[in-house]
Design goal:
Layout: E1 2-4, H1 20-30, H2 38-41, E2 45-48, H3 52-61, E3 66-69, H4 71-79, H5 84-98, H6 103-117, H7 122-129, H8 132-135, H9 146-149, H10 153-156, H11 160-168, H12 175-189, H13 202-207, E4 211-212, E5 215-216, H14 217-226
Parallel strand pairs: 1-2, 2-3
Antiparallel strand pairs: 4-5
Helix pairs in contact: 4-7, 5-6, 11-12
Length: 234
């Protein structure tokens, strides 16, 4: 999995041309022969906000990678189109979507939000609807991972202090001094990192095991069979 945002320099699709230049870059960074097995290196899921350059570059290099939009960014963007008096209520309604136990329940809450606010505030619902599929992609991954992949804040919050310090010290340090400071700030930031839940399921995600509503599909099948009524012989 990877994460991306719109802070700093935006990714540009032209930076990864779909020709020998791109293949040479991939081979150089990932090792010989990587260009021939690009799919093997593709992340299963990319998490980010609405930075168009990031997604365009991702589709250029890893077209098979699933996309998950950040719910924190999306919530803020939707609320910006609503009057302040409605924002608290609308925020709770948005929480009902991404906190739903199953994708079906989330879809129902999604439709309810669009129905409630679409007539008077179409820009708010348009902002939400345009990324509907990408906002609900996390339901196809292990439930233990949901807390980590529903937003890109895991990346952004960790490096917020780094951005803050580097912005304030521009021109005051040498390149080596700046790198040393960034390294030390990163060490401090990692103290607040949350331990990855369900890391043992990462292998199954990499192997392509399917999940539905956070549960492995094989397990879902077993549960359904368990609760099927037994046939009675005539």
């Amino acid at each position: 999995m990877c994460a991306g945002g719109d802070r700093g320099q935006r990714a540009r699709p032209e930076a990864f041309p779909g020709d020998r230049g791109r293949d040479a870059r991939i081979e150089g960074e990932l090792g010989g022969g990587a260009a021939r097995s690009e799919k093997a290196w593709a992340p299963k899921l990319a998490v980010g906000d609405g930075a168009l350059g990031f997604w365009a570059a991702l589709e250029e290099i890893f077209p098979d990678t699933r996309q998950q939009r950040c719910w924190v960014h999306k919530t803020a963007n939707v609320l910006n189109y609503l009057p302040r008096s409605l924002q608290a209520k609308a925020k709770d309604a948005l929480h009902e979507i991404w906190m739903a136990e199953t994708k079906a329940v989330a879809q129902s809450a999604f439709d309810q939000f669009v129905t409630s606010y679409g007539t008077k505030y179409p820009k708010a619902t348009e902002c939400l609807v345009k990324d509907r599929e990408a906002l609900l992609a996390f339901y196809d991954f292990p439930a233990e991972h949901w807390i980590h992949i529903r937003s890109s804040n895991a990346i952004e919050s960790s490096f917020a202090t780094v951005r803050h310090r580097t912005d304030r010290t521009k021109g005051c340090l040498t390149r080596d001094g700046m790198l040393a400071m960034i390294y030390k700030l990163g060490l401090c930031a990692e103290r607040s990192w949350r331990r990855l839940r369900g890391f043992e399921r990462l292998a199954k995600v990499v192997e392509g095991v399917k999940f539905r509503d956070g549960i492995e599909v094989q397990n879902v099948t077993r549960i359904n069979r368990k609760y099927q009524p037994s046939r009675i012989a005539a």
